[in-house]
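If your schedule permits, I should be very grateful for your opinion on a structural question. I have a record of one protein: its chain in single-letter code and its fold written as discrete structure tokens. Would you kindly read the sequence against the tokens and tell me how you understand this chain to fold? Thank you for your consideration; the sequence and its tokens are set out here.


***
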Amino acid sequence: MKRRNKVLSVLLAMTMTAAMVSGCGGKQEEPAPTPEAAQEQPAEAEGETDAAETPQEAADGALTAKFSATFPATGTQADGINQLGEFLKEESEGRIVMELYPSSQLGDKIAAMEGMISGTIEMSEFAATDFSNYDDMWSVLSLPYLWDSEDQAIGTLTDPEVSAFLAQNVEQYGMKIIAWQNLGTRSILNSKRKVETPKDLNGLTIRCMQDAVLAGTINAMGASATPMAWGEVYTALQQGTIDGLENSAPVILANGMQEVAKYLSLTEQFSIPDPVVISKSWYDSLSAEDQAAVTAAGERYTQWYNSELWPNAEEEAMEELKAAGVEITEVDKSVFKEATQSVIDEFLGSATDDQKALYELLSTTREKY
């Protein structure tokens, strides 16, 4: 299908979905939130579905921006977003107040994206690869061992040329990127055994995000990939539905995964920074002064998070995981790189023009970092 038809089809589908369910349902490429998360979800305020036209006002007259998150209320990610709320309040001189809804209280990532498109949710954050639900160009960021380091990854994606290119793409789907945050390098944690080579992954089911390239990489590494909503991973591990997951140490720690899985292998196959995203319809409804405040808050957050909050987060998380009894194994990454080279070759061999353009841009820009 041609790109124009694809975009029109996606936008038409989103419009129909918003009309039927007020932006809270729709495309379920990730499973729906758990019953526990649904019970915690606050009742929708009267008039909230009109947010796309009129920003919701708090009792004191400030505009309320709901931030939908899948991460818990404590941990590095929560600390970061709470500080973003402070920056937003400062830059707007109190005119905009952010309210954080953690632990998938407002739904999973797909629901958050649809909510921002319809204007019922103002803010959220995703892995960059989550945008492949709307445009397969973003699957380039799913390629294994794309970066030499996580610093190179965040440096490349915050480079002015790259960030502008990606921001322009997202806006056509009704969302707007205001910040980027390093979420580290993702490695495999499992509940069964020590993993040192791809052979050790045989027979293990490993949760991955909803992206064909990510799943293909986990399969190529020797495991069996199981796409699953993040909010369901802890219970799935606990019940034995899956054997493990892949993520960075601070995210593993904040979500308590060390309680149900004790083997962490530093395979470091992915570094996928997270964009902080807002509803474009909400942004467009703001005054020019408040738009400038949102932009300034995002810029301050990107600098603060990546230079002050994150640098010590991984080292501290590793120490806490060790203290919790997690066995951390250094591996020879070259054998995992070799095992996943076929994923890269196959992807580039059938890549679209847009995917090739993004890959070339990233490859050229990353040399600066």
The CA atoms of residues 234 and 256 lie 8 Å apart. The longest strand covers residues 263-271. The radius of gyration is 20 Å. The first helix runs from residue 3 to 21.
